[in-house]
Amino acid sequence: MRYFYLGLLIVALLLGACYISRQQVEARTEAVCAPLSEALQALRAGDSAGGRRLLERSRAEWERNEGVLASLMSHSYTREIGSSLAELEALSDGELEHLTLHLLKAVRELLEAERPVLRNIF
Fold it and tell me: Is 50 exposed, middle or buried (0-12, 13-18, 19+ CB in 10 A)?
């Protein structure tokens, strides 16, 4: 009976760790998504300077949170976002809007990849 309780304890600890991991990924991706969404709105409204400022804030949030996200997620997800954020400064305004939309989608997909559904487990 002792092994049964030990097994239950291990399962409970793993579920708790998964819950904490999910909360961390959600909070950190939202910190990156919020300025990205605002930047996209600013770029669509024609405010290029405001959009670039918000993109810089999003890039700073990503750099601050990338270590935790990379330790909890697959590096293939995080590497693409980091490299896209690094090349933002060299883009024209038209390309900037397109890349911002792509980045917003990629960051939101990070959260989807962390959802506890069967296709993510197996």
Answer: middle
Q: Are 113 and 73 in contact (CB under 8 A)?
A: yes
Q: Side chain identity at 62, as an amino acid letter?
A: W
Contact 81, 106 (CB under 8 A): yes
Q: Percent helix, strand and coil across the chain, each rounded to 5? A: 90, 0, 10
In this structure, the dihedral spanned by the alpha carbons of residues 8, 11, 12 and 15, taken in order and rounded to 10 degrees, is -160
Which burial class, exposed, middle or buried, applies to 8 when counting CB atoms under 10 A from its CB (0-12, 13-18, 19+)?
Answer: exposed
Highest average pLDDT, of 12-21, 73-82, 86-95, 106-115, comes from 12-21
The C-alpha atoms of residue 77 and residue 113 are separated, in whole angstroms, by 9
- pTM (predicted TM-score): 0.77
* Tens digits of residue pLDDT in 87-103: 877 777 778 888 888 88
